[in-house]
Amino acid sequence: MNKNINHLVNETLESFAHLQKVEAPAGIEQRILQRINQPKGAKEVYLFRNAQWLIAALVIGIVCNVWLAISYNNKVDSSNTETSTISSFESHFGLETTTDLYE
Amino acid sequence: MSELQLIAELKDGNQQAFIKLIDLYKHLVFNTVLNMVQQFEEAEDLTQEVFIQVFQSIQHFRGDSKLSTWLYRIAITKCLDWQRKNNAKKRMNSMKSIFRLDSHQDIIPDFVHPGIQLANKEKATMLFKALKQLPENQRIAFTLIKADGLSYEEVSEIMQTSIKSLEGLMHRAKENLRKSLEQFYKS
């Protein structure tokens, strides 16, 4: 059994010895020359296609920044409201600062 | 036209010389790329890219090695780049299938080399399949020597390594291939 497998493995390892060369596809020269001589515009379109991911990432980045800025402003606004509530409380009881309450 | 003349004309930007270069080496490049990537359409596309690369960087060719050696090096580098991109794509696809974003997965059929004789078809196909499991350097060495039929001297120049380390690579490649083929034939 093992001898048989060894024989098969050896034969398989040598199977490239009978590999024949393949001809390159017909007309490959023209296709290479076409790609080399393609107008600049086509290259730019290709570059733009590649750059679209970069543009998408930039747009997402800008949106995230704007969102963060808005949410930060809201936070600041709400903390300002809190401060103004404390000030009105202080003025109602004639206190200069909230610490006066504890004195 | 001698090789030196051809190189000089290529450096001058002579398009006829470039056509001559493609004509001389298209089969060599195509066969090497085909044996490496094991896909006919991709091999054609990569062959085109090899010649475009040659056209763009002929000015940097110093002539320290033969033109064919330089072409082999570019072809191998292109194949490895393609392989890495392909592996990354496969990883992405398997990630997608984990998260069920895309249940469709590409099933690549076994590569049947067009130059295989019918009697050897099954064994050579098996060997091509086993080759995919090898580390890069072992795969390059084995493919260039066994499939492309290059000598150890030529391959050591292409891979920029000593013959001794190339022999080591070949030994390890054969050992690894033997293991995976044994596993296959036992199962």
Biggest β-sheet description of chain A = none
Quaternary state, please?
heterodimer
Q: Helix segment count of chain A? A: 3
Compute the CA-based radius of gyration of chain A: 38 Å
Total strand count of chain A, please?
0
Unreliable segments of 5+ consecutive residues of chain B: none
End-to-end distance of chain B: 55 Å
Head-to-tail CA distance between termini of chain A: 99 Å
Structural class of chain A: mainly alpha
Number of helices, counting only DSSP H or I runs of 4 residues or more of chain B: 8
> What fraction strand of chain A?
under 5%
Average pLDDT confidence of chain B is 89
Largest interface: A-B, 24 and 37 residues
**Helix and strand composition category of chain B:** mainly alpha
Q: Low-confidence parts of chain A lasting 5 or more residues at pLDDT below 50?
A: none
What is the molecular shape of chain A?
elongated
Mean pLDDT of chain A: 77
Main β sheet profile of chain B: none
Structure description:
The complex is a heterodimer of chains A (103) and B (187). With 103 residues, chain A is an all-alpha fold. Chain A is 72% helix and 0% strand. Chain A has helices at residues 2-13, 28-36, 40-92. Chain A is elongated. Chain A starts with a helix and ends in an 11-residue tail after the last helix. Chain B is mainly α and 187 residues long. Chain B is 73% helix and 0% strand. Chain B contains 8 helices and no strands. In chain B, helix 2 packs across helix 4 and helix 6 crosses helix 8. The longest helix of chain B is centred in the middle third of the chain and has 32 residues, at 67-98. The model of chain B has no long low-confidence stretch (mean pLDDT 89). The A-B interface holds A 5, 8-9, 11-13, 15-25, 28-29, 31-33, 35-36 and B 15, 18-19, 22-23, 26-27, 29-31, 34, 44, 47-48, 51-52, 55, 113-117, 120, 123-124, 126-127, 130, 146-147, 174, 177-178, 181-182, 185-186.
